[in-house]
Each structure stands twice: as C-alpha cells, then as structure tokens.
Specification:
The complex is a heterodimer. By secondary structure, chain A is an alpha+beta fold. Chain A has helices at residues 51-57, 97-104, 109-112, 120-129, 216-220, 222-234, and strands spanning 2-8, 13-18, 22-28, 35-41, 68-70, 76-83, 142-144, 148-150, 158-160, 170-175, 179-184, 201-207. In chain B, the strands form 2 sheets. Chain B has a 6-stranded antiparallel beta sheet. In chain B, strands 2, 4, 5, 8 and 10 form a 5-stranded antiparallel beta sheet that branches. Classes of the chains: A alpha+beta, B alpha+beta. The complex binds zinc ion (ZN). Zinc ion binds at residues 45, 103-104, 122-123, 189, 191 of chain B. Chain A: This is DUF1989 domain-containing protein.
Chain lengths: 236, 211
C-alpha cells in the first residue's frame, strides 16, 4: 500500500526520510532523467553511502538489482530491489554550478523564476545544510537512470550512453535501516543534450516486507548477505 | 631499476613508511612528491586536501568524470570537490593507478571476507589515526574516496569490477606536483586478504621536494 506519492520537479533537490523497510520508488516522468542520490544513516549521519565499498564487495562497476548499497561501516543502508534498467551510474559524480555556467550561461531566480537552472551540487548542499550537514559530508552519488560505460582500454575511457532512460523507467530502493536520502533531479554533466532538459520524477513511498531468508539481495553474493546481516544484527 | 635523479632546491621530507603505517604532511604549491614502491605490488592509499580548506578535498568521481577515464596516470589532474586542481601526476613508471576501490576498513573486510577478519588492521583505521594525530579538526567525516597508487582494479564494459594482481614492481614510482598548498595523508595498506599487496605488505618511500 502506498503511503504517499510526491512529484519532484525537474532539476530540483529533495530530502526524504525513509524509514526501515519502506521502499522509495522513483519513476521518470520525462525522457533522459538523472537522479543523483546521497544517503546517510538517520541515526548517525557520520555513517554514509560508500560507493567503492558497495562496488568492490559486489564486484560491480555499476548499480543494478539486487545490489545492496553499503555504508562505510559495513552495513546495508538500502537495497536496489528492482529497476526497469540494468545500469545506474555511481562513478562519475554530479553537476556543479561551473558545469551549468559553462554550457548554458548564468541563470537566476530574478530572471527565470522557478525554472532557474540549479546544479545537482547546489541543490544537494542546500538540502544537506537543512540537516546540519555540508561539504564534508559529500560522497560519491548514486546516479540513477544514468549509464556511463568504461571502455576496456588501458585508460578506462568512459562513454556516456544517451537515451538510456525514458519516461516510465523506474528504480526502487528498500531502506534496510532508517535513512536520510538527499537527491537532485538535475541532469548529469556528461549528458550531451544541448538543451537544459531535466526530467520530472515521481517518488512513491510504501511499506514493504523485511527481506526474508531467500531475498534475492541476500542470496546475490555472500558479501551482500553479510552487509544485510550486519544491519539486522546492529538493530536486533 | 634506477629512478631519475631528483634535482631539489630543498628536500622537504624523505620518509620510509612501513607496512600498515601512515604518514601525513603538507606540500606547498609547486612542490613534488614521489612515492616509491620499494618492494613491488604495494597499494598506497592516499587522500589529498586543500591545505587552506580541508572541506575542499580530493574527489575521485569528479576527477574521473573530468578526465573522462577511470584510471590515473601521467597527466591525470587530481581534482577537489570544488573542481580545483590539487595535484597533477607528472611521472609514472607503473602505468596506472586506481581511485575507485576505496580504502580497506575493518567493517568492509568483515563484509568482503567474513567476520573473522574484523579485527585485522586496515587502512581506514590508519586514516582515522592520522586525522586525529594531525588535529586541526580533521576526523572520520573528512575521510573520502581515496587514490590507491600501485593498485589495479579493472572495470569492464559489461559492468564487472575485480581486484587484480598489481601492475607494479620493485622500484616503480609515481610523482605528483602540488597545484596549490595541499595536505597529503597516506595509509600504506595492510590488506592481507586480496592480491593488492601481493599478500605481503611492504614499506614505501615518500620523497618531497621543491624543484
Ligand atoms: Zn588498505
């Protein structure tokens, strides 16, 4: 049963408190979406998403179901339980004001009202500040709906995949402990689209069952199961 | 293997960092830092901070995106969260270095290798110690995704990621030039559970100088 739904405006930032065993489903309402996500343990924001730990433990260069998103303290924060896409970026960060200024020139509220162009970084820092957090709390974002593929060459050259996400694509995160999720729907800085075209995102939050013994994430890899167990043990 | 001679006006430091030990120090703008893998296959986990503003610290993902490639080597500019150049790799006899594998931690060891490894020494313990010892307000909150010099973590186009045998060898080095006044924090990795240190962590040498 859906507890609530909220439409995130195009190119906006938002914070959601996502309690344990609630699912946050993000659905693209427009093509070409990107949602850059920071994640903290609500009980202690010093514990936060750690993308290197998440990827190396699960031997993956991207986020895809049923990966467990792990904190720097070896605990499961959330599980990517499902998605219409098999690749979500986590290794190329998010946009800053410098990117926007260089590509589209200045934009401010006085001239553009609420259609003003705000970078992911600016929006994320605005939201972090509301919780007493700031630049020291930044970490590698999960960039949902974005695909940037490493070439197999010596340098690991990266290529952004245009058209990866379309309206209707979705991803669902199940909180494994109480979370503070801070996100921005600003476009990814590697997106070559010459137009400023952020996508609107529908967020729905619903209660879901706790992961059982045969949960796909628990069985995915021993490491995924151990991270889930570490959270369960700490909340026992 | 003979490394090129260092022409120094002033030697700032010449330190040997033992296996599992740490080192923290400042490097003024224009100064060079050479890290020598004395015995080969030794991961050197390294963090960089703007010396005047610690929150403007090294950012692995911003560095990767702006250079359009995953691995670090000669020419790579290490960027801060504010997209300011902190240091440039100016020489590299190893070939490439990782910045996506992060630092080992007691907690991540328990996830990766099992609960029996939780009390083994790990890089993030060294980093926390170094931050506390350096003081000036630094702490766990300032520990971010680091560079792993001499470490090899190949990514594949189908989305795979592995910890592979090191591409380094005894005497190989990497050299950086500070692009502004920076603070450098090193953990000489004590990891025993994967090939990143050849299963035998060894000392490294850090030489800092102004040309
Ligand atoms: Zn280590």
């Amino acid at each position: 049963m859906t507890a609530y739904a909220h439409d995130i405006a195009a190119g906006a930032a938002w914070t959601v408190r996502l309690n344990r065993h609630r699912a946050l489903r993000l659905t693209c309402l427009d093509d070409g979406a990107n949602v850059s996500v920071l994640m903290f343990a609500a009980a202690d924001p010093l514990e936060r998403l750690n993308v290197p730990d998440t990827l190396k433990a699960q031997m993956s260069a991207c986020l895809r179901p049923p990966l467990v998103l792990m904190s720097d303290m070896g605990r499961a924060l959330a599980t990517l339980t499902g998605s219409s896409l098999d690749w979500h970026d986590a290794v190329t960060g998010h946009s800053t004001d410098a990117h926007l200024d260089a590509r589209w020139g200045p934009s401010d509220y006085a001239a553009d009202r609420n259609a003003w162009r705000r970078s992911a970084r600016a929006g994320l820092l605005d939201e972090l500040a509301k919780h007493g957090l700031g630049r020291r709390d930044l970490h590698a974002t999960a960039n949902l709906f974005t695909k940037v593929v490493p070439d197999g060459d010596e340098r690991g050259t990266l290529a952004f995949v245009p058209g990866h996400a379309s309206a209707g694509d979705w991803a669902e995160l199940r909180a494994e402990q109480d979370l503070l999720v801070v996100l921005s729907s600003a476009p990814h800085p590697l997106d070559p689209n010459p137009a400023w075209a952020p996508a609107r995102i529908r967020a729905t939050v619903a209660a879901v069952p706790a992961p059982g013994p045969d949960d796909p994430a628990r069985l995915f890899r021993a490491e995924s199961g151990r991270a889930l167990a570490a959270t369960e043990r700490s909340l026992a | 293997m003979t490394a090129p001679a260092i022409t120094a006006t002033t030697t700032l430091f010449d330190a040997t960092v033992g296996a599992g030990a740490g080192w923290t120090g400042e490097l003024p703008a224009g100064a060079h830092l050479r890290i020598v893998d004395l015995c080969g296959n030794q991961a050197v986990d390294t963090l960089f901070f703007d010396a005047r503003d610690y929150a403007n610290r090294y950012s692995a993902v911003d560095t990767i995106r702006e250079q359009g490639a995953v691995y670090l080597t000669t020419g790579s500019v290490l960027l801060s969260t504010g997209l300011d150049p902190l240091a440039t790799i100016v020489d590299d006899t190893c070939g490439r270095h990782d910045t996506l594998g992060g630092a080992c931690a007691q907690e991540s060891n328990a996830v990766r290798y099992g609960e029996h490894t939780r009390h083994q020494h790990a890089c993030r313990t060294t980093f926390v110690r170094e931050a506390m010892a350096w003081g000036r307000g630094l702490g766990k909150r300032d520990l971010t995704h680091n560079v792993n010099f001499f470490m090899n973590v190949p990514l594949t186009p189908d989305g795979g990621l592995t910890f592979a045998d090191g591409v380094s060898a005894p005497g190989k080095h990497v050299e950086l030039r500070a692009e502004r006044d920076i603070l450098v924090m090193v953990s000489n990795c004590p990891q025993l559970n994967n090939p990143c240190n050849g299963y035998d962590p060894t000392p490294v040498r850090l030489i800092g100088w102004t040309p």
